[in-house]
UniProtKB/TrEMBL annotation:
UniProt GO molecular function: oxidoreductase activity, acting on the CH-OH group of donors, NAD or NADP as acceptor
Record's keyword terms, sorted: Oxidoreductase
Name of the protein this chain belongs to: Multiple polyol-specific dehydrogenase
InterPro entries, per database record: 6-PGluconate_DH-like_C_sf, 6PGD_dom2, Mannitol_DH, Mannitol_DH/Oxidoreductase, Mannitol_DH_C, Mannitol_DH_N, NAD(P)-bd_dom_sf
Domain Mannitol dehydrogenase N-terminal: 30-278
């Protein structure tokens, strides 16, 4: 008989399921985390659970939070489980399960209550996982997007904010006025220089309503950069059934993830931090080289396999990696055009890292899907692919493969695969992308003229010409032949 997950179940967890070895009643919150999704619970929450398990830093537990209406459902489900999560590590050598207990509460979805929680001096870090598109970044300038309606609302009514950033500012103001030290703001999203992006958004919003306060935030609040990594598929009935059938637990929101984790952080926490280095995190003076390696080889690699895999009819990532056309294309693109844009990192072997990425993508236990990788290209391409193209062009390097990646995205946006079957829309801007992609069959500039995504990149002849060749090849010769031609060199 499967056991319902809650605090009472911790003393009778099924055989093979580990649980907290620490007394959760002895934990106190030092962190408010906004965005308690799968990635957070597979990554940051696991590191803290491990830390608490060795008897360290029990005053750094997580207080969960959310700002969207949809976050209420997560809160309700976790509440029934006393904030516990089952984390299943999908190791091909053998699956393992652990119930993690690093989260001890979750503020109601209410701006005033969240501001009050963050105003508590015991909270020394406010961390966020709000996805790549949630940071109000202007794609044209890479600066702060002050025109967004939610930002305008928070600028005009700072005492009744809608966004996480408006709430952060309200809490910082209360702490400043009360003479309490400001908390550190830590982004846990896959963004280049995510700490700088967080500062840009928070300070940029403050400047719209109170420039003096914005200066205080800029001078007194730390925004450390970090690099995070752990492939974490979305939870579906498949994962819930796995936990119940394999481990005899009923968990409404379990997390399944790969056994690999990496967390590299800039050591900039004026109000203190948990000793995460004791459980595998790395603290360095400069995160940028590590995050660039990850963003380009892993995230860029995901983008590279996503669209050709969809166009060739693959649904699961591991099945795509078993296709020699996809695997050879990825290896060639990474080696020829992506890795050469990276500066060396002492002690890091880029080729070994690439091979590890290939191994991780090929893990059949993860069940990661191609539609997930294809999602939100409008925001992801400017984060993970287009900067590589810019750097390669600046160095006078070849961009044929990178142009092919963009052409594959364009071909995917046209809405059919190579067999003529319809592809479901997978982007908030799907309609505009489809219109441009279909037009690009005859006029490649129709796709690249989207300045919101490409900026002036489409006007650079070396890239525009390479893109034109590749999109025409995809329509004329098909995806498989075009990939194979590139892989052969």
């Amino acid at each position: 008989m499967a056991i319902d997950l809650n605090a009472a179940a911790l003393d009778r967890l099924p055989e093979g399921v580990e649980g907290p070895s620490y007394d959760r009643a002895g934990l106190s919150a030092g962190i408010v985390h906004i965005g308690v999704g799968n990635f957070h619970r597979a990554h940051m929450a696991v590191y803290l659970d491990r830390l608490f398990s060795i008897g360290a830093d029990h005053d750094w537990a997580i207080s969960g939070a959310g700002v969207r209406a949809g976050d209420s459902r997560m809160r309700d489900l976790l509440l029934k489980q006393d904030w516990l999560t089952t984390v299943v590590e999908l190791d091909p050598a053998g699956l393992s399960a652990r119930v993690t207990g690093a989260m001890i509460d979750f503020t109601e979805i209410d701006a005033a209550k969240l501001v009050a929680r963050m105003s508590d001096p015991a909270i020394r870090i406010v961390s966020l996982t709000v996805t790549e598109g949630g940071w109000f970044v202007d794609a044209k300038t890479n600066g702060f997007d002050a025109s967004h309606p939610d930002i305008r609302h928070d600028a005009e009514t700072p005492d009744a904010p809608k966004t996480a950033f408006g709430m952060i500012l309200a809490a910082l103001r209360q702490r400043r006025d009360a003479g309490a030290a400001p908390f550190t703001v830590m982004s846990c999203d896959n963004l280049p220089e995510n700490g700088h992006v967080a500062k840009q958004t928070v300070v940029g919003l403050a400047e719209l309503s109170d420039p003096e306060f914005a200066n205080w935030v800029s001078d007194n609040v730390a925004f450390p950069n970090s690099m995070v990594d752990c492939i974490t598929p979305a939870t579906s009935d498949r994962e819930r059934a796995l936990v119940k059938d394999r481990f005899d637990l009923v968990d409404a929101v379990p997390v399944a993830c790969e056994p690999f984790r990496q967390w590299v952080l800039e050591d900039n926490f004026p109000q203190g931090r948990p000793a995460l280095e004791k459980v595998g995190a790395e603290f360095v003076a400069d995160v940028a080289p590590y995050e660039l390696m990850k963003l380009r080889i892993l995230n860029g690699g995901h983008a590279a396999i996503a669209y050709p895999s969809a166009l060739l009819g693959h649904h699961f990532v591991h099945d795509a990696m078993a296709d020699p056309r996809i695997k050879s294309w990825l290896a060639a693109l990474e080696a020829r055009e992506i890795i050469p844009t990276l500066e060396p990192i002492e002690g890091v072997d880029f080729e070994a890292y690439r091979v590890k990425i290939e191994e991780r993508f090929s893990n059949p236990e993860i069940g990661d899907t191609i539609p997930r990788l294809c999602f939100d290209g409008w925001n992801r391409q400017p984060k993970f692919v287009l900067p590589v193209i810019r750097d390669a062009l600046a160095a006078g390097r070849d961009v044929d493969g990178l142009a092919l990646e963009v052409a594959l995205w364009c071909r995917y946006c046209a809405g059919t695969n190579d067999a003529g079957e319809a592809l479901a829309p997978n982007d908030d801007h799907a309609e505009e992308l489809k219109t441009r992609a279909i037009a690009a069959k005859d006029d490649p500039a129709a796709f690249l003229s989207n300045e919101t995504v490409f900026g002036d990149l489409g006007q650079q002849p070396a890239f525009a010409d390479a893109f034109a060749r590749q999109i025409r090849a995809l329509w004329t010769d098909g995806v498989a032949a075009t990939l194979e031609r590139y892989a052969r060199g």
